[in-house]
Structures are given as C-alpha cells and as structure tokens.
Amino acid sequence: MRKYIRKNILELEPYSTARDEFQGTGISVWLDANESPYNNGANRYPDPHQKELKKRVARMTGISSDCIFIGGAGSDEAIDVAFRIFCEPGKDNVIAIAPSYGVYKVAATINNVEVREVLLNEDFSLPADRILDATDSNSKIIWICSPNNPTGNAFPKEEILEIAHRFKGIVIVDEAYADFSDKGSMLDKINSVENLIVLRTFSKAWGLAGLRAGMAFASAEIIGFFDRVKYPYNMSSLVQEELLHRMEQGTGNHITEIKSERHRMAKALEEAPCVLKVYPSDANFLLVKVKDADHLYNYLAENGVLVRDRSRMPLCDNSLRITIGTPEENAATISLIQQFK
Ligand code: PMP
What we know:
The chain has eleven helices and eleven strands.
C-alpha cells in the first residue's frame, strides 16, 4: 500500500492537536488550547477524530471506526484529500470516466494533476479495457462514480472489482447516490480489496446537504493517511452533534418515496411529446433526452422550475438532469413538460 502514497506524505509529521497528547481522565479545567473559557456552546475545539460519530457510522455500516474518514466539507473534501495523498503534482495522472461528476477534474486541476477522461460506452456502460489502457506507470487513481452523475446508472460490482484487480493504483468508487440503488454497494469489499476506497455522503439520501458531511471508507492503513492529511479540526462540534442526532432519527420513508416517485416520473415523462428518452436511474435524479434541451430548460425556469442542463457533457446531447422532488413538485414539473411544444 505504501507504494501508492506520495513520499512527502509518507514522511509527514502530522499536526498534533492540544488534546492528542493527554489521554487520561479527571481534567475539569481546560487551559491547554487557547480557547475562550466562556461557555457559549461552541467555545471548545471539536473532537478532531470524531470518535462518537465514527462509532455511530461503524454501527450503521458494519465497518470498523479505523476504516472510516469523515469530512466536514462533504465528500468533496475526501476527493481533494485523495489527490493530496496519492498524486504528485505535475507528474502523476488520474483516470476519470466521462461524463461524470465535475469535482474530480476541478480537484485534479487545483492539485496540478492530469486527468485522462475515458468516454463511457454509448449505453453508459463501463469501458473496463479502455480505462485500463489509458493508465501508465504514473496513473495513481481511477475515479468511478456509481451510480454515475449525470447518467444515473450504477455499474456492476464485478466490473469495478475487475478494474481494481487489474490496476496498480487506487480505485475510488464514489457512491454518493448508492442509497437509491438496488444494485448494491462496494462497501463490503474494502477489507478484502486493498486498493479500494468508497465515498459516501450525508448530502443525498440523508437529506443533509447543508451540514456538509461526507465519508471515505477504506483499509485502516489508507484511512490513516486521510487522517494525517486532513485539516486537524475539519468538522465543527455543532455538525458532529447534529449528525449524531439525525442518525438516531434515520431517513424515515424518504428513500422509498424518492424511488417510487422516480418510477412514476420516468413513466410520465416517457409519454411527453418533447421527450425522446428517459434513461434508467439508480439515483435520485433522471437524465432525460429531449428534442430541444435549451428551449425546455428556459421554459421550465420561466415557470419557476430549475433543472440542470447537461447537454454540453459528452454523450449527453440535448439532455436535462432532473432531481426527484416531492410528489407535488414532481407533478407540477411533469405537467409543465407534458404541455411543452
Ligand atoms: N459525488 C457525487 C457523484 C456528487 O454528485 C456530489 C454532489 N453533487 C458529491 C460527490 C459531493 O457531495 P457532498 O455534498 O458530500 O460534497
């Protein structure tokens, strides 16, 4: 595993926070961290290791705490930290499928890392051989978003495993939308596949995009490097407490409702005169190919409904990405699209 890690990261002496050094009990006066002594609910630094939260996530996922990283800027934080752990700026490269989530490329560019984009097959399936052909000895990460944004489809686990098996680098599977998929998760593979990292987020199925919380799951060795590279206090105490509380509450029936609305919306949109194709979706959105995407996009916006125009992305000619909303929001959107000439 260490061969995939940048030399400066291997040699890094990580920042040690005020409370890392003392592990005992019995302290009631905290004069070690230059905090304000006046209790206003946020005057103390948060737990930099998010121990309680990790315990709770471990209970939820069955993955042990030392295999969990939690980022306070969503899973976008894990994406950036991964570049900083594995990729030597100006030298290494990564492979990303196209079309896919835009932040891999932005984070790569910020880190001065080349991105080699490999077009999905026409039917949005995974081109395993072309992905592997695009690699060379400086390729450090293969990014696979599954279910993929914006195409909506999840890739078969066996195909991802085959890529991980054949690649001499890290495979990161971004499962931001996996809670909406019936095709399963790669989470149970992180202990047996040493070069696999799985990303998850609280922003989608948990409905907590405003809190900014995301997770990375991998071997304890890899997660150890995430913990060394992250900012020491990367998640506020208020967010940690709120997440514990929300996890106790669960997601209710929201995932089931979104999946059934997705089905209803897909069926209804297929009947609309301006719609050419509704792609199958394993996520909380639909990619819809229409006759004139720009025109429909503007018409929806004029009527108060904002969707995402993905027409400029490869293989997504004239395609809009429509998030599944509440039943009322979906009904209004369906009716507008059905009426559009
Ligand atoms: N991965 C994918 C595929 C996404 O679509 C998004 C957000 N749209 C993210 C990650 C980032 O999510 P977060 O809010 O956890 O940063």
